[in-house]
Amino acid sequence: xxxxxxxxxxxxxxxxxxxxxxxxxxxxxxxxxxxxxxxxxxxxxxxxxxxxxxxxxxxxxxxxxxxxxxxxxxxxxxxxxxxxxxxxxxxxxxxxxxxxxxxxxxxx
Length: 108
Prior knowledge:
This protein is low in regular secondary structure. It has a domain at 34-60. It contains three helices and two strands. β1 (10-12) and β2 form a beta hairpin. A two-stranded antiparallel sheet has the order 1-2.
């Protein structure tokens, strides 16, 4: 049997091949979306001092410019906002292939 992997616990499939389980780090954060009346998804507190959870809006104050920079748009993945510029350029079209482009007449 192959050597054990250093992180997580090893589980084996029916053939006996080890499969390391996921840790509790960054990849696990994306799966936290099941419970509604819960603790803060970032720090686990009932009332969070960092983000203001359970308040609807994220806590931020103008007296702390640096903390606003840390949490500003562009510091994360921007999985939605990343594509808005391209969609705006094309008029927010949806579905199918882009319309055919007209050929320009050849210059002499």
